[in-house]
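Same chain as my last thread, 271 residues:
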Amino acid sequence: MIPGNDPETARVRVGLSLGGGAARGFAHVGVLTVLEREGLRPSLVAGSSIGAVVGALFCSGRKADEIYELMLKQSPSMSSFLFTSFRPQPIEQRFRDTFGSRTFESLSVPLIVTITDVVSGKTLFVKEGPVADALVASTRIPIVFPPVIKDDRILVDGGLLCNLPVSILRESGADRVLAVDIGYIGLAEFERPQGKFQMACRCLDLLGRIPMHLEAEKADLVLSPKVLDDTALDFQKAEKFYKMGLEAAEANLDRIRTLWSPTQYHGHPCP
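reply #2:
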């Protein structure tokens, strides 16, 4: 019997945390492909930046292959990031075309999207309202795009303070958490940053590492697809990132399966 369809294991609420990392988000789709094949369906999802986008597509009922094709079709080129930094409208329009007026309340799987409020210095965990609006703010990468101004708030990429949302999943009822860490919004692992843009991205990476590690420690299992050798803005490597996510999930498949099984799990105490 497929674990996700077993009445005995259905009571285990597994949360899925999808980290931010721009084009590396295709690795999330690779992980979802394996979960879908195994019949392992998350009970709730939390995502930052591109993780929020993939999470929203999944929670709206789309299959992994649909998500891959949709993301591939709508992916921006490297030049669109580097030369239209103050024109995020094309990307935002894609969100609105895809989700329309759909709200969090209408999703088939509960979704939590992280957004950073730079005024309060806190992470906002959005669970209600228009999905497209939340994605617009959650993907406003600092340095690359200007912030979203809303009332007395200045909103930017959710990954700035919480790039791997795990705690919020536990607070929202998840018994166990599977997290997928794809790095951050920096370009790639490199010895010496070249130019102001790379230096700024590298600094963001370094600042975000400690909170990411603290969140990762709270997950039952963290998958880390080997995507850090490639720039996070290179959407031309979508297939490569996807395969890396697929490989990471396949390599940890036995451990992933135990998250859905109360009789086999050996991590945190069973509920």
